[in-house]
Task: structure prediction
Amino acid sequence: MTKKSSTEIKQQIIKAGREAVEQLIIVANEKIITNTEDDLSADKLKNAAATKKLAIFDAFEILNRVDAEENSIAEAAKVKKGGDTSGDFAERFASNKK
Result:
């Protein structure tokens, strides 16, 4: 069994996170009242609405974190390849001398 790098593991987590967001979107899109003849108590309606709210907020939280990790991986790859263009010439030249 080969050992995976941190980047490979992060990419798997990112993929799983995006899939989780898709599932949360499905939950958020489900109708609370599926049959108008259903007699749902106010408490059940309140719980269903809270579940939808939680699904939406969780999806945004996961998506924000996934995007941040993707950006982090991209920046690390750019720096590793020497493509970091942040800072002025002197800063880049000094960091390349190390």
